[in-house]
Task: inverse folding
């Protein structure tokens, strides 16, 4: 699926020059949640809100931090059925 993704290396270099290294610092600067930042840094799609937040927080153009790319959905492993537990004898 074609979508907008974060240019991770470019973004991290930009953030580092501004003193933002940890997820918490990135979150405080952008106003985005740590989970959102983690998802985008791992190749997940960027929402319009996230794009606007990053571009505004770091005063950069779209092309400086984002690109059009393909996101491959991660496969969720099948869950094993719950084990049955025998009731203890009274």
Result:
């Amino acid at each position: 699926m074609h979508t907008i993704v974060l240019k991770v290396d470019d973004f991290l270099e930009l953030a580092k020059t501004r003193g933002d290294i940890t997820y918490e610092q990135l979150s405080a600067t952008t106003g985005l949640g740590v989970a959102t930042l983690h998802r985008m840094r791992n190749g997940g799609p960027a929402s319009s809100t996230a794009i606007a937040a990053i571009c505004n927080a770091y005063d950069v153009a779209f092309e400086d931090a984002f690109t059009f790319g393909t996101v491959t959905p991660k496969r969720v492993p099948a869950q094993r059925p719950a084990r049955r537990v025998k009731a203890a004898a009274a």
Summary: The helical segments are 8-17, 23-30, 34-41, 48-58, 62-65.
